[in-house]
Write a structure and sequence with these properties.
The protein is α+β, with helices and mostly antiparallel strands. The protein is built from 16 helices and 18 strands. The strands form 6 sheets. It has a 5-stranded mixed sheet with strand order 5-4-1-7-8, with helices on both faces. It has a 4-stranded antiparallel sheet with strand order 10-13-14-15. Helix 2 crosses helix 3. It is elongated and about 150 Å long.
Length: 429
């Protein structure tokens, strides 16, 4: 095949210097027909290798017959149906070549974003386990938000993937930005839109901050490709070489790293996210005057065991409200309880599992209540046996034992014989 440099030289000699075809063929050592073909071609020669045969060619008709009815049939099932005797490589190449003829091609458009228009949200689960208590470590989710126009990154680790914790993280990151994007894009995260519709807590959050939550179509990762790519960016640029002592340590290191990450040049926007952030912010919605209701919430009538369970941990409540309804609100950092809007407990939130968090003041109060109850019962017993008590104005009032009243009215009452007689009467009506 004629080389590109020979093709260029033939055209130069003939057109620029007027060298005849016969002389060009002699100088370059090529056939005269090759020279004529080079002069007739306006494009440089390109080598195209002829397709070699494959062992899969003999099975192509059988594969096509299967794809007509089941275009998305998996390769291993196709191999089983046609009795494929070779390795999977040739069959996979055949399927990659002919399957688009039956399933169609789904092109993806290049999307551009206006300032303030959109932010993509996702949960990232870093592989390292984070120590959360003595002898206990967990893999914890990280909430990630990426602004569409500026590509500005923000992220924070949260205690769980429950709706209250996710919404707490969203409010924290949006408050850090200072304004609200007009649309928040989520995948089918169970707490946000696992049923295909935005969940009630997420809809309430969106209504309070005046935004819209848009759910990605199922099985369409490209719909929120920005945040997915940034999750990979975290894996390769943030995690390597780091050790974390706690969730707070993770968030501190992540916050320091994000400052540098947002000053890098992003090829898609031709600039640094931090330089475009203000333009993005000015087109967003202002923060609401009253923040949304976030965090884990729980309402329960407090039992004698004066503890409530939040995210697999038990927290003590003031035992003086036993038997009354208690409202518990848990943020990523604190757990607070209220009874008739009065605070009755406050604890630091534990990110561990199966723990018992106790306020010593609650234990002391319960102990005093038990002592007071014991004193009351002893007083009642003394009242049954006679004694004195104080009237409302303070003067003593004599108390008589119940047998004294029996004697006064001429009743001979023996609790043992009376109980036996009543039992015999009940058995012989």
């Amino acid at each position: 095949m004629l080389k590109v440099e020979d093709w260029a030289e033939i055209r130069r000699l003939h057109r620029a210097e007027g060298v005849p075809i016969k002389e060009i063929a002699r100088r370059l050592g090529v056939a005269r027909n090759t020279v004529r073909a080079a002069l007739a071609s306006d494009r440089p020669p390109r080598y195209e290798r002829a397709r070699r045969g494959s062992v899969a060619d003999a099975y192509e008709l059988q594969v096509r017959a299967l794809l007509v009815s089941w275009p998305r049939m998996p390769g291993p099932v196709v191999a089983q149906r046609i009795g494929w005797p070779y390795s999977e490589g040739p069959l996979k190449k055949l399927l990659a070549r002919i399957r688009p003829e039956y399933v169609g091609i789904d092109p993806v458009d290049r999307v551009t974003y206006e300032p303030g228009q959109l932010a993509q949200c996702d949960l990232w689960f870093p592989a390292p386990t984070i120590p959360v208590a003595a002898g206990q470590a967990r893999i914890l989710p990280v909430l990630v938000i990426v602004l569409g126009f500026s590509r500005f990154l923000s992220a924070t680790m949260i205690p769980s993937r429950q709706a209250g914790d996710i919404l707490s993280g969203m409010w924290q990151l949006i408050s850090g930005i200072g304004r609200v994007p007009k649309t928040l894009v989520w995948d089918r995260e169970s707490a946000i839109g696992g049923t295909g519709r935005v969940s009630v807590p997420a809809a309430a959050f969106a209504g309070t901050v005046a935004t819209r939550i848009r759910l990605a179509p199922p099985r369409d990762p490209e719909f929120k490709g920005m945040v997915e790519r940034n999750n990979g960016f975290f894996e390769t640029s943030f995690l390597p070489g780091r050790v974390f002592a706690s969730p707070a340590d993770f968030n501190d290191q992540l916050a320091d790293w994000l400052v540098r990450a947002n000053t890098r040049t992003v090829r898609a926007i031709g600039g640094c996210p931090v330089d475009l952030l203000e333009t993005d912010r000015q087109a967003m919605t202002p923060l609401p005057p009253v923040g949304p209701q976030v965090g884990l919430t729980h309402r329960i009538r407090l039992a004698r065991d004066y503890y409530v369970r939040i995210d697999a941990n038990d927290y003590s409540i003031d035992p003086r409200v036993i038997g009354r309804f208690v409202d518990v609100v848990a943020s990523p950092t604190t757990v607070e309880a209220f009874c008739d809007r009065e605070p009755v407990a406050r604890h630091d939130r534990s990110w561990a599992k199966h723990g018992v968090i106790t306020d010593p003041a609650h234990v002391a109060t319960a102990h005093q209540m038990r002592l007071a109850l014991a004193d009351q019962r002893r007083a009642e017993q003394r009242a049954q046996q006679g004694g004195t008590r104080r009237h409302g104005d303070g003067h003593p009032v004599a108390l008589r034992a119940l047998p004294d009243y029996d004697a006064l009215f001429g009743v001979d009452f023996d609790p043992i014989t009376s109980t036996a007689a009543e039992a015999a009467e009940a058995s012989n009506p």
